[in-house]
Amino acid sequence: MAVASGLGFADIPALFRRMTGDEKHEWAAASTLDVLWVLYDRVLDVSPDRVDDPDRDRFLLSKGHGPMAYYAVLAAKGFIEPSTLDTWTAWDSPLGQHPDRVLVPGVEISSGSLGHGMPIGVGVAIGLRLQGRSSRVVVLVGDAELDEGSNHEAIALAGRMGLGNFTVVVVDNESGTHGWPGGIAARFAVEGWAASTVDGRDQGALHAAFTAEHPGRPLVVVARIGEEG
Questions:
Q1: So what's the pLDDT on residue 21?
Q2: Residue 189 three-state SS
Q3: Averaged over 31-46, what is the pLDDT?
Q4: 123: helix, coil or strand?
Q5: What is the pLDDT of residues 42-69, one digit of tens each?
Q6: Is the whole model's pTM more than 0.70, yes or no?
Q7: Which ranges in 90-202 belong to alpha helices (H)?
Q8: Which of 33, 90, 94, 149 has the smallest CB count inside 10 Å?
Q9: How far is CA 149 from CA 17, 115, 166, 194, 221, in A?
Q10: CA-based nearest residue to 41, from 14, 64, 73
Q11: For residue 115, what pLDDT band results from cuts at 50, 70 and 90?
């Protein structure tokens, strides 16, 4: 589990508000707050002193637009200093409008170009399995990203290979252009994934979904937010 830094979820809104000037993506980031907190506080086996540990869990933020919530959670968990949040998007700040794996401790991939995180995650999960490691790979995507063809290929391959160490969380704020017959979870289930849909603001339901048994199958958790978030 993540190393405690003395800050809790109640501190996240204040950390979030320290970053200004990203009005375009603020709500896209806010919709991920509960998901990110549950992952880093109760699910992922990763901490600031283990960012290079080959046996750490990997979290990949594919929904790279509006990483404000991600930065706030990383600050609360001790990966970055909270004071760094005050430099958000300044010319000399490590905290850009898309996260940079070279500049921000704990960030696994530089993201922002939507649709890339899931395929990268599949590759990481396969690599870890070949190395005999039990590390978990979790990718957070937005529902509109599922329009990208690369994700369809990743969904199919992960299901066919039975990547039990691979989890995708889809933050569903109903921004997808076409939607999916039967819902997003059905899109994954038809490819052999374990799938569930929960309230994206219900931390207890999120934790239960992330920790449900799914031997020999990848897991998708659809976190429903609604149009307002």
A1: 67
A2: helix
A3: 95
A4: helix
A5: 999 999 999 999 999 999 999 877 799 9
A6: yes
A7: 117-130, 149-161, 184-189
A8: 149
A9: 35, 8, 19, 21, 20
A10: 73
A11: confident
Establish how many alpha carbons lie within 13 A of residue 2's alpha carbon, considering only the half-sphere containing its beta carbon.
25
The arithmetic mean of pLDDT across residues 148-174, rounded, is: 94
How buried is 32 (Cβ within 10 angstroms: 0-12 exposed, 13-18 middle, 19+ buried)? buried
Using a 10 angstrom Cβ sphere, with 0-12 exposed, 13-18 middle and 19 or more buried, the burial of residue 7 is middle
Residue bearing tokens 């589990």: 1
Distance CA 64, CA 102 (A): 15
167, 211 Cβ separation under 8 angstroms: no
Burial class (CB in 10 A: 0-12, 13-18, 19+), 30: middle
Q: Which residues contact 111 (CB under 8 A, 6 or more apart)?
A: 60, 61, 62, 63, 64, 67, 98, 99, 117
Residue with tokens 């200093």: 81
The larger pLDDT score, comparing residue 188 to residue 175, is at 188
Given a cut of 80, is residue 176 above it in pLDDT? no
Residue 179 tokens, joined: 């939607």
Per-position b or e across 66-90, b if 16+ CB within 10 A of its CB: bbbbbbbbbbbbbbbebebbeebee
Strands (E), 68-225: 137-142, 166-172, 194-199, 219-224
Structure tokens at 69: 């919530």
Two structure tokens written together for 76: 């609360």
